[in-house]
Design brief:
By secondary structure, the protein is an alpha/beta fold. The chain folds into 2 domains: 190 residues, Response regulator (Rossmann fold, 3-Layer(aba) Sandwich), CATH 3.40.50.2300; 135 residues, Response regulator (Rossmann fold, 3-Layer(aba) Sandwich). It contains 11 helices and 12 strands. The strands form 3 sheets. Strands 2-1-3-4-5-11 form a 6-stranded parallel beta sheet, with helices on both faces. The protein has a 4-stranded parallel beta sheet with strand order 7-6-8-9, with helices on both faces. Helix 6 links the parallel strand 3 and strand 4. About 3% of the residues have low confidence.
Length: 347
């Protein structure tokens, strides 16, 4: 039995079989399980099959994701922000001579998944994608898994290591940028799925406005799905309702992430609203797609490479020094000015 035979039996490519055996992202969990089951039933044993072995790998870190919850989809590895973050985590692991393996747990199997993972003890340290996790959920994970670091969120009272984005700072700078460019009529397009990061971004943006005695009216607060890059009917309906009210459109909009900003630009184009001539738009995250859209998106750069390096270095230092330090790191953002924003003309 060869890898080609497993691929034929599973009706997938040889590359998909390789991803299933290596534990790398790129295929869905159902496909992965089907491939591994066929291999098991056929008596095929791949070399270095770390994803299915219960013995701990030497010099390895595990990247743990809880899917089908919040903004983390089942195919999270295809979402631009997470795809870039995973790339940098993998690069840093290679630099440190650590193997990176992956584990995905459906949120519906949260308790059982953690219990199984703790029993398997497959790696020397665990990096958890915390974007969609609550304080209570991370507390449970921390109680059962040692040498752990959580990315992309933070809860100060938990005795767990976190690497988080300075969301407040990034959104604050976005607000200051709009105000300094003459914008006082400003709208806010939020995610209809709430996570820690979005709440912090809202806090930072409103802080900038409050310092200049500005506010956002209820009519100028819109809400849409945060994981769609195309135009959205829901947003089109909200904007159309606003426009028929007779109220002038805000001259600028802040969006809680680049997904929302890009979707808003495409929706506004379909409605005949010109960006940036009629309204400016700012996003947050600086995903690759921000440089592909027209006009290129003004946004807030999340330093994904630095976040990844801090996470890997913290775990590997603990492993190599025999320690289990709990550290919380906040990584500052950088404002990126492109073409989706323009200064408001002075009358």
């Amino acid at each position: 039995m060869k890898m080609e035979d497993i691929a034929r039996l599973a009706n997938v490519s040889k590359a998909a079989v390789s991803l299933a055996f290596s534990g790398k992202p790129g295929i869905g969990p159902e496909t992965r399980e089907r491939i591994l089951q066929i291999a098991h039933e056929s008596g095929y044993k791949p070399k270095n099959r770390t994803t299915t072995s219960n013995s701990k790998s030497t010099n390895s870190l595990l990247f743990l994701v809880f899917t089908n919850s919040g903004i983390v989809l089942e195919e999270y590895y295809q979402q631009p922000f997470f795809k870039e973050l995973i790339h940098f985590v993998g690069e840093r692991c290679r630099q440190k001579n650590y193997e990176l393996i992956f584990s995905t747990i459906d949120m519906e199997s949260f308790e059982q998944g953690i219990e199984n993972l703790a029993k398997e003890n497959r790696s020397d340290g665990v990096i958890v994608l915390g974007t969609n996790l609550t304080e209570e959920q991370i507390s449970v994970i921390g109680e059962r898994i040692s040498n752990l670091v959580v990315l992309d969120t933070c809860f100060e009272i938990l005795p767990v290591s976190f690497i988080q984005i300075n969301n407040v700072m990034g959104a604050y700078h976005a607000g200051k940028y709009l105000i300094n460019n003459g914008h006082t009529s400003i709208g806010y397009i939020a995610s209809n799925v709430r996570i820690h990061n979005f709440d912090e971004r809202e806090r930072g943006f409103l802080k900038a406005l409050n310092e200049h005695h500005l506010s956002i009216s209820d009519e100028c607060r819109l809400s849409v799905a945060p994981t769609i890059l195309s135009s959205q009917d829901a947003l089109k309906k909200q904007l159309s309702t606003y426009m028929t009210s007779g109220l002038p459109l805000p001259t600028a909009w802040f969006c809680e992430c680049d997904y929302i900003a890009i979707s808003a630009m495409k929706t506004m184009f379909e409605l005949g609203i010109k960006v940036p001539q009629e309204c400016s738009i700012i996003g947050f995250d600086n995903i690759t797609e921000a440089m592909v859209v027209t006009p290129e998106l003004t946004t807030v750069q999340v330093e994904k490479e630095k976040i990844a390096a801090h996470a890997v270095d913290l775990l590997t230092d603990n492993i190599e020094q025999g320690e289990n330090l709990k550290i919380k790191i906040m990584v500052d953002t950088t404002f990126i000015e492109r073409n989706s924003c323009v200064p408001l003309p002075v009358n």
